[in-house]
Amino acid sequence: MPAMRTAARPATTRCVVVLLAWVGVLAAITTIAQRYGFSGLAVNRAALIHAWAGDGLYSYRSPLTNLGTALPPPALFLVSPAAFLPLALAGWLTALAGVAALGLSMVALVGPVARRYGRRPWPVVLAASALALTVEPVRAALGLGTLDLLVFGLVTADIVALRRGAWARSRAAWWPGRPASSPPRGRTPADLLRRGWATGAWAGLGVGLATALAVTPAFFIVYLTVTKQWRAALTATGTAASAAVAALLISPDETAAWFGEVLWRIDRTGPVDAIVNQSLAGVLARIYDSTTAPVLLWLSFSLLLIAVGLIRARSAHADGDEIAAFTLIGLTGAIVGPVTGTHELIWILPTILILIDAAARRRATRTTPGRTRRPGLAFAVAAGTTYLLFVLAPMWSLHDPFSANCYALALVLLVNALPWRPGVAPAFPINRWLGRTPTRPRRTTAAAGANAEKWQPSPDRRVGEPRNRPGGPLPAATIPPPREPGR
To answer: Where is there biased composition of kind Pro residues (predicted)?
Structure first.
């Protein structure tokens, strides 16, 4: 009887926690909806009704804000069921889908960090999700009824796919037995899905769908190309192109209007000089007190930031931190866009996670009897400051030039200074049991010398075995099993 009572207690605790979590989510959505009123979804819904009445989809203008829809045709097809529902119900369904995408993203990003420090994942994930609901980008995305949380979830799914693919290739390279990447013995849909999950075969699909729903995720395709992740890049490009072709077949006039006119308008999502625009173009427009940004100056600084973001993301990828690499690309795409609303700054969430993890990895060390060195203090302060900045949203309450541009300045600083954690989330096969920092190998040249380390091992030695180990090769029994990334 005591054993049964002890076994039932965790299940009861989980049920209570899940119930309280849902109550908190419903309360948060209710409060956020009262403030924002699902105004973004209302504009898209009215534009769809306007188009079905025989008028142009992108010619609609809201009588309150004089704004029209700026969603690509595939995204409008996804939102189209909202036109048959009341605005409140459609907004709640969109918000619940966004919360689900946010929760799954937190599981993928926060769970491995919690396991690495010996913590139970689900309490940490719940705490991180609760804190994420207080951040202005998440509040705005839920309250406006936009698809930014869904886009964030799709891109995060590709991060998971790239990591699982790398782990499967590492296991197949040297672990004895049937590798995870080998074809399944059966050909049933369940076998194919199991193989796809084990090998991360869907890498690129999430980025492609996100690019079809928004424009900014196209930067991730550029990143995948720069880092030579060809399969994922081709999958993302093919998925986005397929969505565009499907939209062209379903609605040729609106798709032609989107690619021919709407896509190239700088102010398609709102005024460039508005406070809500926290991009570089918005900063320049407010500095020059103009309704638009100086084009040459904006393009010059944007190209510089794109170069910095791609270079730093490539370095993070080479050092084995794919989460930081994707985060840098997400921050770069947000700052260089012509109009970036606060609801598009979702990538600040993994930024705070990376800063907290970087601070925890650099624990305090005592250098002298009376002095303690705290190398992670700067990252901890940066994480706390970033979180408070994006919770308080000072541009809505304070009226000064710094507050009006605070998010844009924070993005520029983070693109240039965000740290990464070597070996935390690699997207390429590594030898984990050697105990050294995994770094993506680079091609060696003849000038590098005859003793340059090669990535591909010679056939006469075990993969991951040191070349000049005294005493001969390690026995097979001493080789530890591979571990999934983050575990």
So the answer is: 478-487
